[in-house]
Amino acid sequence: MTDAAPAASPAAPATSDEVAIEIRRMNKWYGQFHVLRDIDLTVMRGERIVICGPSGSGKSTLIRCINRLEEHQTGTIIVDGTELNSSLRNIDKVRSEVGMVFQHFNLFPHLTVLENCTLAPIWVRKIPRREAEETAMHFLRKVRIPEQADKYPGQLSGGQQQRVAIARSLCMRPRIMLFDEPTSALDPEMIKEVLDTMIELAEEGMTMLVVTHEMGFAQAVANRVIFMDQGQIVEQNEPGEFFRNPRSERTKLFLSQIL
Ligand code: ADP
Ligand code: MG
Fold first, then answer.
1. 32 CB less than 6 Å from ligand 1?
2. Residue in 33, 63, 73, 234 to alter for ligand 1 test, most ligand atoms within 8 A of Cβ
3. Could you say which ligand is closest to the alpha carbon of residue 64?
4. What is the mean pLDDT of residues 175-183?
5. What ligand 1 atom has the least distance to the C-alpha of 53?
6. What is the ipTM of this complex?
7. What keywords is this UniProt entry annotated with (predicted)?
8. Cα–ligand 1 centroid distance for 70 (angstroms)
9. Residues lining ligand 2 (ion), CB within 5 A?
């Protein structure tokens, strides 16, 4: 938790009547360990959801199941109308519609910023190189680092690397963006620049699921906050109510520790 609370409030509507993600009675185990328990979650197009909860509660596992970096065992996950299951043939299609930004950026260190942004569009989406480069520059301008295009990730600050990671995701033209603690590895002075980039995305109506403990971001941007503990969704509410009137004791305890 930092005081890098963004001031802006997105103009985008809270919800639409189109379902982006539908999760029903979903369970996942790692071996014997029951990591996600009866998860029910419907995300409408344009929603901005913040997921919080103690370390080990299953937040990363949940969002990794949504782009099938992890497989669930029971229940259903439907993303943009496609059910994620073992007979799914076109996993690349789902992955290109669902962008993911990680805590540790996960850029390719031996590729330039521009090459990081064009790799998947060229090889997965089969977009011509020139066009992929134009798109990459468009999104690098959007995250305000076009001048870094020819540098390598190691030459950039953490905040710049994370903005490259966001631009790289956007180059695949995703309809949904997942963020897993995108600012947790950043020095405090770099947190705001990454949050500001995410706020702009929200204002443009991107459907976003964000695992974060940046409660200022949650207050300003989320239309719904979800609290997870021990593999379950314990409580969810719009941010005002969530912070003012947490219902469960577990949520109260968690908030008392981070706020
Ligand atoms: P969070 O993101 O909320 O901290 P995670 O989803 O990373 O939680 O982890 C939830 C639980 O699952 C933790 O107890 C963690 O140790 C365990 N876990 C995570 N990944 C694996 C894995 N690949 N194999 C076995 N256990 C795992
Ligand atoms: Mg995690």
1. no
2. 33
3. 1
4. 97
5. 3
6. 0.98
7. ATP-binding, Hydrolase, Nucleotide-binding, Transport
8. 11
9. 60
Question: If we measure between CA atoms, which residue out of 179, 175, 141, 176 comes closest to residue 162?
Answer: 179
Q: Are 158 and 173 in contact (CB under 8 A)?
A: no
Gap from CA of 180 to ligand 2 centroid (Å): 7
Mean pLDDT of 166-175: 96
| Mean pLDDT within 25-35 | 98
Helices marked H in the chain: 59-66, 91-97, 113-123, 129-142, 158-170, 188-203, 215-221, 239-244, 249-258
pLDDT at residue 12, as a whole number:
44
The predicted-structure confidence for 35-90, as pLDDT tens digits, reads as follows 999 999 999 999 999 999 999 999 999 999 999 999 999 999 999 999 998 887 77
Give the residues across from 233 on adjacent strands.
Answer: 228
212: Cβ below 6 Å to ligand 1?
no
Q: Dihedral sign, CA of 153, 155, 158, 159? A: negative
